[in-house]
Structures are given as structure tokens and as C-alpha cells.
Model the fold of this input.
Amino acid sequence: ETEEQEEDDEDGVNLGNLIYCDAHCHLDYCILNDKHGDDVWTFKKWMCPRWKDDGWCPLGGSCDYAHGEAELYRREPLRAEDLEPFVQRHFAGRSARQDQIAATPRAACFIHNCCELEAIEDARLIAEVSEQMLGGTVFCTFGCHPHNYTDYDDLMEQRLLAAFKACGRKAVAWGECGLDYYKNFYDA
Done:
């Protein structure tokens, strides 16, 4: 390192030498954030439980959840090329466009968590494409998040198991995913 790089490290500016591993990451969400921006696609993904029960919600138009089918956000499937911006930013020495990578911490590996029906095909794509682009540094887990327990049925289990099997050695865990009990969507 040069003297200037050492000074940057001390000031917290140059983080390019740091490496991390994320053991519970929703890579699909990260990639969709890169593609669409956080404010666009993360809201109105689910039907509002209050509105669904009563046809009314005290939050009205500012509710993060959809009030009717017309408001539901329909998630578009990821494409292989959607992964490149994420790879450029997070994996040192892995992107064809190294000149555009800023001095930020670099990922050594990710464990992508697939816990929604609409995310299954994206998880399979992430496992397949990341194997080619990142040489085996992305793994997948499959299960049902507590928020989605009402969606869990034999068909969902079959689809999750099929994706688990299709990912082969990239699939490293199976089961319930997430413990966000403090923000329960449903009154059980």
C-alpha cells in the first residue's frame, strides 16, 4: 500500500481491502434494487391484510401493501444480464469491467435465501449464472418465510424442493427462513 492508501484506510474512505461474506442475503432483492431502485418494486408486493379482511385500511394510499389486484406489483423475472452490475460492485477481481469498481468492501461469498414462490426461478437463475460469473461463490437456501406461511402448501413445497435439487451442490440449506416475528403480517 502507498502512504495515501494507508491514510484513506484510517479515515474509513478506502474500504477496497476489506472482504466479507453474507450468510443470509436476498440477492434477488439486491439485484432488483440495482435495476429498479428500492422505492419502485419493494412496495405493493402483497395484499394489505386489513384491506383484504374489511375492504378498508386506515393508511389509505400511503399503505405499503396493495388495496386490490390492480395495485399489486407484478415482479418481473431476473435475466442473466441483471446480475452484472451487482457483480461489478461486490466481487473484487470477478468483473470484466474492473475499472468501474469503487473502493468498497468486496464479497467473498453469498448465501442467497429463497423464501417466496415468486423468487424460485430467480434463485435457480442466480445459482446458474453466478457459477459462470463468480466461480462457485454463491450458494442458495430454500424454505418458507413466516410471513408467507399462509402460502405454504404441497405445491409450494414441491416447487421449492425441485429448485433445491436443480441447484445441486449450490443448495446448502432447507427449512423455515427468517424470524421477523415482530412484524407479523397476520393475526394468528
In short: The helical segments are 3-11, 27-36, 38-41, 49-54, 84-90, 120-134, 154-166. The longest helix spans residues 120-134.
